[in-house]
Structures
1.
Amino acid sequence: SCFTQKKDIFAENLFIMKKLFRIALLCAALVGALACFTSCSKDSLAINKLVGKWQVETMTLGGLPISIAEMEGVALYLTFHRDGTYLTEMIDKEDREVATGTWEYADGVLKMNVGEVETHATVSELTVSRLVITAESLDGEEPLTTTLTLKKVLK
């Protein structure tokens, strides 16, 4: 039936979202580099822009674009705190997954740590309302490039 097909599609999208959430956690580890407050005014300005709560709008995973904003009942947030810690939240209709870590930012690179996993992401755009980061991770033996486009929802 149509309901069963929609339920199956939602379950498949939810599985993909949970995998993407884990990848986003790795990307969040890249943000850990921002806690490394440098004397460079350019980095200080970027850090000031980065601190706050960001909502992931779109994600490109290995060239496959995924619009999280269009997924009903699903949201992914990254919150960067001035003390160099961050919080990642994935919320769907059934669950809320949360992870914390540390972040640093310097010279256009966001370093995020979750436990012993460290991720480095290139910040290609950072304004007071928009953030675009790209990271490469190994999924098995193949490198997997992930790009996140986020909008700021809370300072």
Note: The longest helix spans residues 2-28.
2.
Amino acid sequence: TASPEKEITMSKIQGSCLCSAIHYQSSAEASKMVASDCRHCQKQAGAAISLSVGVPASSLLVSGLKPTVYEDIRDSGAVILRSFCPTCGTPLFSKPSDDPDLIFIKTASLEDPSVIEHSNPKSLPEDSYSRPVEANRASSIIGDLLARQMRLKVS
């Protein structure tokens, strides 16, 4: 029989958009997590921070409507494909051209966000668009970013 740890790491990542027109799943474990507060990600997410988990692009199965894709160009010049629901506008995926084997799933679209708490993400290299985090540190980083944003509004 499988140990409880094996069962946790074998958890399926699944989610959908707000209107449920698009569903997705990946049997792969989340290997990376990105918390980004760059202006492009803020605007795309409609929030002060965008949280995403990376999975192998080949593991992602999408059903229902075909997501609309917007080609964004980062300050670095790299292209990032941002996918969202054409009906309700929910941001779902980001696929960076400089990391073609991964696709990043927006954590707000996960059916069960706790699956990322049980993964063991590796860190990402620092670059101009993302801030690497371990899943168990995400809430700390969100708190820091929100506090920083509040200080900016007050001053």
Note: The two ends are 58 Å apart (CA to CA).
